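Tutorial handout. Part one gives the primary structure; part two gives the three-dimensional structure as tokens.
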Amino acid sequence: MEIVLPQIIFQAVNFFIVLCILSYLLYRPITQIFQERAERIEKGQQAAQEAIEQQAIMSQLEEKKRLELEKQIAKLLDQASGEADEHKQKLMERAKLDAAEFQQKQRIKWDQERAQLLSEHRTAMVEAVMLATEKVIGKKLTKDDKTHLVDQQINDVLAKL
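Part two.
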């Protein structure tokens, strides 16, 4: 085999032409596609970073809102507790007034019953004393004599009580 110089030159020129055509048709578009892909990836990473930052900001805002809501809830609970205490005080005062009123009514009722019982016992005692006195004396007493004797006996009994 012999080395043919024109054929080597021809193959070198053909190789150079194929290299230029492939470079122009394939290499540049592929590198451009890779660059575009790299740019898209970069943009995606930036968007992801921005999303993470926005999420962190949103988390901070949510935390602030939660703390504000907790403060408002605590304030409302304190206010409600105060109102409940006031209502409780009013109810207690009203209950005390009602109890005092009931107690007063019961005292009046008891005093009336006591007075009625004393009157009934007094009448019964007067009749018993009159009957006993009339039997002891042996004569019928007048109304003035009865009144005088009854008053004297009741005073004696009350003095001993």
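Part three, for discussion. Residues 8 and 39 are 43 Å apart (CA to CA). The mean pLDDT is 88.
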